[in-house]
Amino acid sequence: MTHRDTTPSRGTDPDRTERELSEALAALAGGVRAAPDAYRTARGEWLRRERRRRLVLAVLIAVVFTLATLIGLWVLNQAPSDPGVIFSGLGASPIWPPC
Amino acid sequence: MEPLAPVVPDPAELEREAGLARLFEVHYSSMLRLAVLLGADDPENVVAEAYYQIYRKWRRLRDIEAAEAYLRSTVCNLTRMRIRHLQVARRHLENPPEETVVSAESAALLRDDQRVLIGALQQLPARQREALVLRHWLGLKESEIAAAMGISCGSVKTHTSRGLAALTQAMEARR
Lengths: 99, 175
What we know:
Oligomer: heterodimer
Largest sheet of chain A: none
Number of strands of chain B: 0
Mean pLDDT of chain B: 84
Strand content of chain A: under 5%
Number of helices of chain B: 8
Structural class of chain B: mainly alpha
Largest interface: A-B, 29 and 42 residues
């Protein structure tokens, strides 16, 4: 003759693990308290970081603009200064209007 | 000489400030708890970073309702990145410090079996841990968990069941 255990199962089935996990997470979360000045601290930090980001961006744009201007001036300065490179102006002028 | 006119703040800026203050008031504590449960060693910084990201992307935010989901997803991603960074850093140290599972004051509130369970949870791969915390603490639906983690619903099921199996095994081994 076999006897069946009528007490509630104490096995570690997934349902039980799920229930225990929910309880453990709730207990752990319940012990977490936010600092009272968390908003002021966080706001100060993100305003500071935003100002810094904008400053870095402005400096980067200024550097790129300055470099582009300097390179452009240098290239223009390298062009030969002899007269008549593109148009000498010495040849016979075309007759205008054509006959 | 005329006095300088006071600087008039940008209305969009004022709206952003007010919106963020409201978001902070409503969701900060739950985001902080989420970061702790996911195993972040510096949950305040993780959550502050998540709020900074939403501050920067405020104009692109669809509506204020979407902000909570965005924050949750950002906290999950940042915590995962932080844990991965710490794991890599520990690998390069000669005498790595012991991993701190949860802060001592938080752990003090737990019973022994709960402490073991939380310890086992922290040993799981990050994705499994996230899926379990989002499911069993926040009580999110599979689709919401999938959106928060940026994966498919099928993957959520896989991570949840594998994580739960590992926890069950850990608890069985303890008894």
